[in-house]
Structure formats: structure tokens, C-alpha cells
Amino acid sequence: MNVKVDLKVGDARIEGHCAPEFQIVLDEFIDNFENKNELGVSVALNIEGESKVDLWGGFTKPIKTSDEPDEFRWQRDTLSIVFSCTKAATALCAHLLIDQGRLDLHKNVSTYWPEFGVNGKEDITVEMMLNHTAGLPALREPVKKSGYTDWNYMIERLSTEAPFWPPGTRNGYHMTTFGWTVGELVKRVSGLSLGTFFQKHIAEPLGIEFWIGLPHEHHHRVSRMQQWVARSSEKLTPFTYELLNNKHSIQYLALLNTGRFRTDSPESYSAEYGAGGGITNARNLAAMYLPLANKGMCGDLKFVSNNQIELMAKTSVATLEDATLLMPTRFSLGFMRSMDNRHRETGHMESCIIGKEAFGHAGAGGSLGFADPEANLSFSYTMNRMGAGILLNERGQCLVDATYTSLGYQSNKSGMWTK
Questions:
Q1: Would you say 174 and 274 are in contact if contact means Cβ atoms under 8 Å apart?
Q2: Residue 247's CB: how many other CB atoms inside 10 A?
Q3: Residue 64, pLDDT above cutoff 90
Q4: Which of 141, 160, 88, 175 is nearest to 359 (CA)?
Q5: Which of 135, 183, 230, 300 is most buried, by CB atoms within 10 Å?
Q6: What pLDDT is stored for residue 307 in this prediction?
Q7: Are strands 359-363 and 50-58 parallel, antiparallel or unpaired?
Q8: Among positive and negative, which fits the CA dihedral 208, 213, 218, 223?
């Protein structure tokens, strides 16, 4: 059914379509505006390749009393930064090359990138790059101003950096470095920059609007991101506590040693920042996952092999304390698996509960995209008002929960949604 709802809260409007069997997804979407301080947002889900939910609404910036609301409404084609949801796009580039036999998981990175194999990195494999065990979650010395927008500079820095732990012995989320470490492999093997490869081999064949390096003519479509600000009464996660109190920590270096990188700027939009700079919306992020949820097929196109999808979905590492995030995590090769940390004091900011066969990636502040081959489901939620934590918050999780409930799944008490 077509949806056009004017809400009583802040003149917000919701538009799009929602199949009747997913009414509770729409209900939760509305409740996010009425009770959870949503600003601007999109959510989309496909079942067996068919769009069942495609909703958007709210505003591209906070509205002042003097503003004309219609000028800043979130439109069907509004875009937003999806932060670490971008890692899934970067990983998918690598998986296509693996599927084609051009990149080998078990070979040393130095086979493809000779300059990398120094200072304790000689035996780092492609697999370690993808599953966050390479030991390069950050750079120790300060990044130069605008360093994050200078690909060659970042590659030179990572080529000479020493690992923070013996590679392969533990995992620690490569929060910002993943885009360059995996992206340079894509570049060395394919001869194309990461953003160009993604456009040519993923975005264009799938017909999606998703960029790692946004062309200038689309900059005006991007919603401004509203940063999360901690309340004094709010309990900090171990990650955030370490970030704020130890400038020598992995946590501080990973998130804040960025050369003054600004999320909302023309330079950041245009940069091929493969760990966190992807720009899209829910419709298109869900469409990227569509073949991964449907045996590699997108319409008549065989996009990727079934074997490669199995590899993307298979848990590669799981730990009780991630060296970067300081919480239990589960990753496949470049993707997140369901992570349930609700038993922890700050677990509501450290969880992302999806199906037991699902794989995807969350983005800082709460964005999410994933595929669930068991349910033939591809799902995405993108927004412009960040919530607390690195993984999901209640706004995104409630939409995931409503989706699985609509599909007849019974419970997520086990830490993942099960039938």
C-alpha cells in the first residue's frame, strides 16, 4: 500500500510504500518519530527480490521555527552517509575478486602489495585483512591534515606501520583503516581505484545509487549528519571511556587520529573512504544485499556464486573482547554477524541482533544493511541523527525486530532471530 502520513510531531511526513504484512514495520517507523527523536530516515526491505517496504521521511536538518519545512523534507532520493555500512561494500569488492580467482584469501598481502610486507606484517594474509585480525586498527603517529582524503598518503602510512598485536592472534575492529587495507588490495589486483571498481562492478550492474566517492553533482542530495552528544547521566561504553581518557589508546587513535577529517564536507563526500564514507539510502543499500540474500541472483543476473555467499556468511572470528571495541564481537570476512551484548551494562549500545544466517554491517550512530539468505531478506535502515554506540540503537533495532516478527520468526533470546 502507498503511504503518506503527516505526523503531529514537528511537521514530519512519511512517504513510500509498505506491504500490508509488514504493517508493524510502518508502526515502528512512525513511533521512532513520535517517541524516539528520529529526524530524517529511510528504511527498505526486499523479500525474494521484491520490494516490500520502502519508506522515507522527516528532515535533512533540524527545523527551526523560521524555516519552511517543505524545503528540508527528506525526499525519495535523499542520500546520507552510512559510515561503516561502507565496509560491507568494500568487502564485497574483494569477494568478487576472490570469486573470480584473482585474489586468494590465504596468500600474504605482500604478494599483491609488496611494500606492505615490512615491520612485522610479512605474514599477514588477505583473510586477516578481511576479518580484523591483521593488527592494524589505527596509526600511531598523527595523521597529517586532510590525510584521510589522500589515498596515496594513507597507503604509505599503512605500508610502514607496525601491527598493534601479532597478526592473526586476536581480532580488533579496523574501524577506519579497513577501507585502505582492503581497498588497496582491490586496487592492486583490479587496476581500478576502490570507488571506481565499486561503481563498475557492483553499483552499475545492480542499478543502485551508492558511491564510495560521491560525484560533485550529487553533493546537494546529501543530508547533514547530526552527531550524537552524550548526556552526563549516560553510562559510557568501555570503548567510549577509553576513547575519552587515553589519547594513546587504540580507541582514541582509531576514531580521532584522522587529520581533522570532517564527516560533512565536499572533500569527505568525494573521498574514496572505504571504511566509513559511503553515501546512499536504504533503498539502494538493501538492493546491494539483494543478490546475497537470493543465491547470487538479481533478476536474471548471476552476480556472485553460491560458494562465495557461503564464505561471506560464515563466522570467521568471534571473541569475548574485541581489541578495539572492548566488547564481544562476531565477524565473517568483512561482514558483521549477529552480536548480542544485552547482558552487559551498556549492551543496548553494543548489540546488533539479526537472523542466525544473516550477515551485513552496521554504521556508527545506528545505520544498518544486511542479507539473510534463510529468509531471502535484504534490509537497510539509514538516518541522519546518530544514536549512541558503534552498533544499533533502539530506532534501528526495533525495525529489524518488526521485520523478523512479520516474517514469522519467534524469538531473538538466543542472540539472533530464529524461527
A1: no
A2: 11
A3: no
A4: 88
A5: 183
A6: 97
A7: unpaired
A8: positive
Residues 6+ apart with CB under 8 A from 78: 40, 42, 56, 60, 221, 222, 223, 281
Distances (CA, A) of 132 to 104, 292, 348, 392: 17, 21, 23, 20
Please identify which residue in the block is written with the cell numbers 547533514: 224
For 59, list phi and psi in degrees, rounded to 5: -135, 155
The 10s digit of each residue's pLDDT in 253-298 is 999 999 999 999 999 999 999 999 999 999 999 999 999 999 999 9
The dihedral sign for the CA sequence 18, 75, 196, 253: negative
Residue given cell 562492478 in the structure block:
201
* pLDDT digit string, tens, across residues 10-40: 889 999 999 999 999 999 999 999 999 999 9
> How distant, in Å, are the alpha carbons of 84, 254, 259, 367 from that of 265?
18, 20, 14, 20
Cβ contacts of 193 within 8 Å, gap of 6 or more: 151, 187, 213, 272
What number of residues does the chain have? 419
How many beta carbons lie within 10 A of that of residue 366, not counting itself? 27
Amino acid symbol at 312: M
Residue 216 to residues 127, 183, 195, Cα–Cα distance (Å)? 34, 22, 14
Question: Is residue 179 within 8 Å of residue 85, measured between CB atoms?
Answer: no
Q: Give this prediction's pTM.
A: 0.97
- Beta bridge partners, 339, equal 352
CB atoms within 10 A of CB 122: 12
DSSP string computed for 280-331: E-HHHHHHHHTGGGTTTEETTEE-S-HHHHHHHHS--EEESS-TTT-S-EEE
- Find out whether 323 and 164 touch, Cβ atoms under 8 Å: yes
Q: Transcribe 346-404 into DSSP letters.
A: TGGGS-B--BTT-EEEEETTTEEEEEETTTTEEEEEEESB--SSSS--HHHHHHHHHHH
